[in-house]
Design brief:
Largest sheet: 4 strands, antiparallel
Shape: rod-shaped
Radius of gyration: 28 Å
Number of helices: 10
CATH topology of the largest domain: Arc Repressor Mutant, subunit A
Distance between the termini: 92 Å
Helix content: 55-70%
Number of strands: 4
Structural class: alpha+beta
CATH architecture of the largest domain: Orthogonal Bundle
Order of helices and strands: EEEHEHHHHHHHHH
Oligomer: single chain
Strand content: 5-15%
Strand order of the largest sheet: 3-2-1-4
CATH class of the largest domain: Mainly Alpha
Number of domains: 3
Length: 216
Amino acid sequence: MQGVITKIEVQKNKKDRVNVYIDEEYSFSCSMELVYSHGLKKNKLVDMDEIKDVVSDDNYIYCKETALKIIERTLKTEKEVEIKLRQKGFEENLIDKAINFLKKYDFVNDNKYIKCYVKEKIKKDGKNKIKYNLMKKGIREDLIEKELNEVNIDKQQYSNTLMELARKKYEILSKKEDDKLKVKKKTCDYLLRKGYLWEEIKPVLNDLLKINYLET
């Protein structure tokens, strides 16, 4: 089936996109870029296969541009971008192509994302919480474990952060509760929620109890 392009008009709100009319009826919209690359112009005879190619190319360009906008402000994981594109109604094959484009040019890189995330969050959270939050972002557990083991975490800083969090929480709870064991348990629960392991928390709490015992 063939038709003649009778009008190509620039959209009012998007100057880089046009509406294409075939045989006096609206047929499809596409980017200005595709008008030039496919040689579309008024009075040109086109067939439906050519139109399908134009629409397919345009959908991919739109999906790719949307993906780039998603990551322009903050780093995103591959899964986060995928979910956002799916929410916007793009087809799976277009999402796959857009994700592959982002990966090819290193716009999304889950390994790098983990390193940046750990560097930021390790100052206030334990490894367990960091791991859990990264898994929520769609990153594979084995990849997280690998990067957590390889990333350069300052053990002394990690220990100091844990001690400081424990001390502050312990002091706040001690003002409201006289029972030291209850204060210890609540402090422990707090630190567990922060993502620290029991074997990391135990010596810190014991030290706090000794210090407070000596002060009293």
